[in-house]
Amino acid sequence: MVERVDVRGKRMIVTGATPGSLGFETALTLASWGASVVVTTRSNTDAAVDALRTRLGDDDSQGSIDGHPMDLSDRSSVERFARWYRETHSDRLDVLVNNAGIHLDLLSQWKEPHLSDDGFEIQWRVNYLGTAQLTHLLLPPLKQTSEATGDARIVNVVSKLHFKGSNDQLFERTKPYDSWTAYGHSKLALVHMTLELQRRFAASSHLQAYCLHPGSVFTNVADRGLVGTGIVEAVRKALSPVEAFILKTPKEGAQTQIYCATHPGLRGGLYYDECEPSEPSEDTQDANTSARLWSETEAWLGSE
Ligand SMILES: NC(=O)c1ccc[n+]([C@@H]2O[C@H](COP(=O)([O-])OP(=O)(O)OC[C@H]3O[C@@H](n4cnc5c(N)ncnc54)[C@H](OP(=O)(O)O)[C@@H]3O)[C@@H](O)[C@H]2O)c1
What we know:
By secondary structure, the chain is of the alpha/beta class. The protein has a single domain, classed as Rossmann fold (3-Layer(aba) Sandwich). It is built from eleven helices and eight strands. Strands 3-2-1-4-5-6-7-8 form an eight-stranded mixed beta sheet, sandwiched between helices. A hairpin with a 2-residue loop joins strand 7 (about 270-275) and strand 8 (about 275-280). It is globular and about 50 Å long. The N and C termini lie far apart (about 45 Å). Bound molecules: NADP nicotinamide-adenine-dinucleotide phosphate. NADP nicotinamide-adenine-dinucleotide phosphate binds next to helix 1 and helix 6.
């Protein structure tokens, strides 16, 4: 487990903190180390907040937990959350952990993409576009905090599967649909976003951006990815103790994102794995693609 860091007084957001998830364990550790943590889930947020508060206990030396629902596939929901944060919490934001995400159709049964209400492939919409929207909305408090304290961070939870994405398919999909590749594209885009954030804001505002692979972790992600697969879903449920034994626990899996959120002086603009800098895919090194993605995303964000 990573070494405890004193984060008392810091304000942090962790998206996707449903019990049993990486976000839950991340929020719990950050609050137990003293941070004021705001969590989001898409559904049952009050239950997640209650579970976190119960686990945290009422020791005064610990931080706090608050929460608000947010659906990353819905522009107005993301706007509502960002507005609520700034109105009810503060203009201070030390760390944004962009953890929420989905990995659907694990058996690759979809022949065509499943679309969000506004017409995007659903994993791209949630994992990349929604996360990019949230990040853009929260840049003012993050920059303000980093300028005042010299340390604010954006931590993007990506995946080794970003290697399945390719730059030539980021802007125009010409190949047949494959849900694993689509997941890879959403995470490749988040690596590009991390590198572009670092290029744009590290020198001018001291804002650091990190991305990371958490490992293979026993969370709710596969439950969602196997919904509707009948016998496979049932067999997996029966074998879940074996799976839990083989994979990392959520607490173990959360260590690299906790490390990126807290480790003093940690170098930004890198991809981390097992709390060490690691090599991301070659495609991520194309700065022109990162810049183009940034400007096309900005155009989309300004389009309504
Ligand atoms: N588990 C792994 O092995 C693994 C490996 C590599 C990367 N990752 C990444 O790690 C991150 C955390 O995943 P996890 O494994 O902890 O999965 P999880 O247990 O399924 O948790 C995912 C979280 O994201 C939230 N979420 C789902 N759809 C959302 C939406 N449309 N808008 C807002 N929030 C939404 C969920 O909220 P609700 O419960 O309310 O839906 C939940 O809190 C993801 O980005 C995932 O891609 C996981």
